[in-house]
Amino acid sequence: MITRRDVFQAIADPTRRAIILLIAFQAMTPNAIAEHFDTTRQAVSKHLRILTECQLVKQEQSGREIYYRLNGDRMQEIDQWLEQFRQIWESRFSELDNVLLTMKTNSNEQKPII
User: Is-contact 19 44, C-beta < 8 A?
Assistant: First the structure.
């Protein structure tokens, strides 16, 4: 039975985020991934299992090797969820820009001419 993990708990770990970055460019074997970390192959395998359980990565068999590839569809779901917050903050920053511009304009208008 596969345990479904929360994707945000999975990406909260810096090692798992680093693994995602590695395999975003090309599929890699667990051994190739482990070479990039100062940890055991077993620890990397555990991280890969968690990423697989939450469907952020996919396993692909090629001969005797298993390759891990980023699941772009799942990453897109995360991006869509985050987009709502991006829009909120962009709106707030835009409002702040307007307030600061108004304050600056008012400040320049109130300076006495000498």
Answer: yes
The structure's pTM equals: 0.71
Q: What is the sign of the dihedral through the CA atoms of 68, 72, 75 and 77?
A: negative
Q: Please choose, from the candidates 74, 72, 63, 73, the residue with its C-alpha nearest in 3D space to the C-alpha of residue 29.
A: 63
Residue 14 shares a structural domain with residue 47: yes
Q: Are residues 77 and 63 in the same domain?
A: no
Query: How many domains does the structure of the chain reveal?
Result: 2
Per-residue pLDDT reduced to its tens digit, 30-78: 999 999 999 999 999 999 999 999 999 999 999 999 999 999 888 888 8
Strands (E), 1-114: 57-62, 65-70
